[in-house]
Amino acid sequence: MSRSVEAATLCGISPDSKHTPLASYLLVGRSGSFKLGIVRRTAFISLLLFLATVVVYWPLKFCGFLNFDDPLYVTNNPHVFHGLTRESMGWAFTTMHSANWHPLTWLSHMLDCQVLGDRPWAHHFMNLAFHIANTCLLFALLKKMTGAFWRSAFVAALFALHPLHVESVAWVAERKDVLSTFFFMLTLWAYGSYAQKRSRVEGRGSRAEQQNRALDTRHSTLDYSLALLFFALGLMSKPMLVTLPFVLLLLDYWPLRRFELPTLTSQPSIPPRLLWEKSPFLLLTIASCIVTFFAQYKGEAVAPMDMIPIRSRIANALIAYASYLLKMIWPQNLAVFYPHPVDWPAANIVGALLLLICISVVAVCLRRRSPYLLMGWLWYLGTLVPVIGLIQVGSQSMADRYTYVPLIGVFVMIAWGAADLVSRWRHRQPAVALVGGLALAGCVVSTNLQVRYWQDSLTLFRHALEVDPESPLSQRNLGQALSERGEQKEAIVHLEKALELKPDFPLAHVNLGNSLNLLGRLDEAIAHYNEAIDLKPGYEMAHYQLANALVVKGRVQEAEIHFQAALQSKPDYAEAHTKLANLLILEGRQDEAMPHYFTAIKSNPDYEEGYYYLATVLARQRKFEEAVAYFQFAIKLKPDNTPVLNDLAWILATTDNSKTRNVPDAIRLAQRACELTHRQNPKYLDTLAVAYSEKRQFADAIAATRQAVTIAESAGQKSLAATIESRLKFYQQGHSYREISNLAP
User: Fold this and answer.
1) CA 417 to CA 151: how far, in whole Å?
2) Distance of alpha carbon 738 from the chain centroid
């Protein structure tokens, strides 16, 4: 093999390609030392990309979970938050929760919860790890296929550091973006290896090269199988990868150059074998499209045509294509949500169309001299098709996260186009280095600032409202975040604004009802819950909150109807099962209540309230052994739950059951409950005194009782103070609580 051919092979390009700049270098250098230099330089650039990305995204360490989709994917999802179990893994492959079928994404979140727990920074850094892996894979892939080292590095740097990609990395719920792209890159790598080996098998060469064809054939089959496997895994992470067969054809065009070479009068043509190669990938695409459409239709995520007509969808697609390009060049006013206006100004539509036509014309006209332009442009246009809004999913007009893969094509156009543009300049290297460095520096500053907006829901949606004050979703999410912080009056302002902008917003009605409820404005809250149900009759959250409000109003029968309605819409609604069971207990219907308690803890094994209420009922039934077991489950899930600590301490101290009675543990639990409440809860102090008396520590029992009486009297709880004080004289006489009960007339 000649040194020029060896150089081309090393760089991962066809030996007869025009783009073999490294071949001439090998004519005067030693191939061994050259290879070592390439490896060292590649490792050095990869390390720089790693360090730069970590530094830029370091503020993720201080970011928490958001109230937008993170509860759906992690924090309020018991299947995920409980970690990897046989049941949760089965759920991952069978559910269409969140209007998608992406089992690997669910498994990824489950593994995080099992290994990393509920620490937000750990989940964020796992996203970052995938982003860094994608960056390094992109660099290696482009370098392998084109042999252009610095251009490949520049594309990877833009991918790593561009602010439009912050949303995919900084949002825990967008694990599906970085995970699916990881498999996307692996698919391209395996396919590139397959294509290069097939080119050697199909080409003509020396007798020695022909003897290696059988080995190349076997290896290419393995690479092809791996590409199919990685593609299937990518689709199981996020179905946006359905355009990958189209991307493979683009790579065949450039840089793999597998199209038939044109004659003087003909154009490059696609050999039938290349189309046939893509057929298994296309079958996976079709299957994924069918499953995804069914999932999104079932999840009511697909907007109907009467809501957003086709002309509005086409107009939005044109503007989105153009807007992404403008935001790539000048990334300002980036937001987590861009509302769909339905009707765009005609000037915007015409301007976007002209921009797209101009770029398309340039790419087509320069396809012979600069094939990367057509390849990169079609990559951008094609990979955005699933999310460009022709099939409208959700209410957004566009989203930064949708550019994660598509902008790679534009980055390639920029890197290779800039290099060709200045190829005749005398001082091109310093000029290119300066401009490229300034561009990357701008990305670093902008991206680092953008990451900080993702610190929490308040920061994120306040920024979103600075970009677009008329976004009902941003108003609603900010209102919910304020409500969770206890700032109900300010929350109501934003929730009312959300409903002013979008009156048919069921979730905003529920959130507003919750805030009004917390302020004691129960009748107004009930009105908003009813409005949410009118807009969405099967809305389980609205039925649940309305039922709770009706219980407070004493309208028990109506409350039961709405609890049942919530369970009809969501049979595994653990909170609704528990509250309905509590209601049935109050009505004396214990036999009907017990199955609901058990269903609640089965539906959500991490629901500590379910264990607590079940334990309380069992204790009233004097089934103390079972009650203690469920109290202990509740404490394991939430060690600082003071009512559970207190109630379990009481049972352990006062029961006559020798298997259950444990006075030392009772004292420990009661002391913990008192510490957590700063010894200001008279009931908890009374429980501690009872436990002390059972241990014959009467001095401590007397002191705790006196403190409890003082606190109860100062709080106006005279009846409670009298009850606690009635035990004091018995402690002074050396009698324990159980002995007091026996001495009572």
Assistant:
1) 10
2) 54
Cα end-to-end span (Å), the chain: 108
Residues linked to residue 363 through DSSP beta bridges, in sequence order: none
Residues in contact with 342: Cβ distance below 8 Å, sequence separation at least 6, in sequence order: 308, 312
Asked whether the predicted pLDDT for residue 205 surpasses 70, the reply is no
Helix (H, G, I), strand (E, B) or coil at 397: strand
Tell me how far apart the alpha carbons of residues 185 and 72 are, in angstroms, rounded to a whole number: 27
**For the whole model, what pTM was predicted?**
0.86
Cα–Cα dist 194/205, whole Å: 18
Q: From CA 621, how far away is CA 259, in angstroms rounded? A: 79
Q: How far apart are CA 70 and CA 245, in angstroms?
A: 31
The pair of structure tokens assigned to 408 is: 């790679």
Please spell the DSSP secondary structure of 459-512, one letter per residue: HHHHHHHHH-TT-HHHHHHHHHHHHHTT-HHHHHHHHHHHHHH-S--HHHHHHH
Alpha carbon distances (Å) from 235 to 210, 249, 283, 407, 727: 37, 18, 12, 19, 68
Residue 4's pLDDT is 41
Separation between Cα atoms, residue 199 and residue 259, nearest integer Å: 11
Q: Crossing angle of helices 407-421/428-452, nearest 10°?
A: 160
Q: Which residue has the tokens 């007009």?
A: 397
pLDDT in tens, 310-363: 999 999 999 999 999 999 999 989 999 998 887 899 999 999 999 999 999 999
The Cα 106–Cα 101 span in angstroms is 9
Mean pLDDT of 19-27: 37
Angle between helices 371-383 and 346-365 (to 10 degrees): 140
The residue whose two tokens read 């101290």 is 653
Nearest by Cα to 181 from 238, 143, 221, 125: 238
Average pLDDT over residues 607-633: 92
Q: Are 255 and 146 in contact (CB under 8 A)?
A: yes
Tell me the HSE value of 149 on the side-chain side, using a 13 A CA sphere: 14
Helix axes 310-329, 407-421, angle to 10 degrees: 50
Residues paired with 693 in a beta bridge:
none
Instruction: Name which of 193, 198, 289 is nearest 241 in CA terms.
Output: 289
In angstroms, the CA 640 to CA 608 distance is 11
HEC string of 269-330?
A: ECCHHHHHHHHHHHHHHHHHHHHHHHHHHHCCCECCCCCCCHHHHHHHHHHHHHHHHHHHHC
Gap between the Cα atoms of 672 and 68, Å rounded: 35
pLDDT, position 13: 42
The model's pLDDT over 108-151, given as tens digits with 9 standing for 90+, comes to: 999 999 999 989 999 999 999 999 999 999 999 999 999 999 99
Q: Which residues pair with 396 in a beta bridge?
A: 339
Give the C-alpha separation, 584 to 617, whole Å.
11
- Tokens for 286? 């079709």
3-class state of residue 339 by DSSP:
strand
Let me know: does 389 contact 397? Beta carbons within 8 Å: yes
Q: What is the spatial distance between Cα 277 and Cα 331, in angstroms, rounded to a whole number?
A: 39
Q: Say whether pLDDT at 499 is over 70.
A: yes
60-79: b or e for each residue (b if 16 or more CB lie within 10 Å)?
beebbbbbbebeebbbebeb
Give yes or no for a contact between 486 and 515, defined as CB atoms under 8 angstroms apart: no
CA distance 405 to 185: 10
**Would you say how long the chain is, in residues?**
745
Q: How far is CA 737 from CA 205, 695, 699, in A?
A: 98, 10, 14
Structural domains of the chain, with CATH: 41-262+281-309+371-386+393-450 (no CATH), 571-633 (1.25.40.10), 640-745 (1.25.40)
The tokens for 736 are: 């324990």
Kindly state the tokens that stand for 14: 């066809």
Q: Are 606 and 594 in contact (CB under 8 A)?
A: no
